[in-house]
Amino acid sequence: MFEFFKGTGTSAIESVESTLVGMLRDGSEVFETAADALFGGGKSKATKREVRSTDAGINRAQQEVRRELMVHAAVADSMDLPSVLRYMSVVKDAERVGDYSKNIYDLVRYGADFEDAPDRAHLETYRQAVGDLILQAAVVFESLDETRAAELLAKADGFLDEHDAQVKAAFRSTGEVADAVARALYFRFLKRITAHVMNTLTALVKPVDQLDYYDEARDDRS
Three-state SS string across the chain, please? Predict the structure, then answer.
């Protein structure tokens, strides 16, 4: 196995990049499956199995990335240290996309159902935006397009403020407590997914010391 990581080291880093793209795409699959259930599909053994099995695959991919980077750093004749540090940092963010998407399915398990909600169209607007963000991030990462990554980060940064505003609105709601809780958690999970997608993209546009801060409040980023 070690022979693969010797030489220029390019093959190892490209393999890691490919795995990260796959993690984002699998995260998109978990997200869409969970969101479909929340917006009318409901809970089922098949859906639970799909969500959990895909998320488990993402977890295995994270381990694979860390293993490949560690071996590459140990034995490659020409090690790409900046890439090793970047990808070792952000692989956990790619993994968290699946985790928080799985949490959306947990809302369904707890009884949340937006199928006939009077604000369904409003709620689906945010679902669509985050779903598109995950897929666009995968495309951008696959092409290693720094310009597009920066554009996507700037666009998604506005989503974080919108999600915060919706969480506050849910807390101030005078309707049913269960409805308010479901919405507050829904927007909280959307915010976390968005932030972790953004953190993954920082590997393309930020120096190592500035990676991984989009899950912090804007004033706390450094």
Answer: CHHHHCCCCHHHHHHHHHHHHHHHHHHHHHHHHHHHHHHHHCCCHHHHHHHHHHHHHHHHHHHHHHHHHHHHHHHCCCCCHHHHHHHHHHHHHHHHHHHHHHHHHHHHHCCCCCCCCCCHHHHHHHHHHHHHHHHHHHHHHHHCCHHHHHHHHHHHHHHHHHHHHHHHHHHCCCCCHHHHHHHHHHHHHHHHHHHHHHHHHHHHHCCHHHCCCCCCCHHHCC
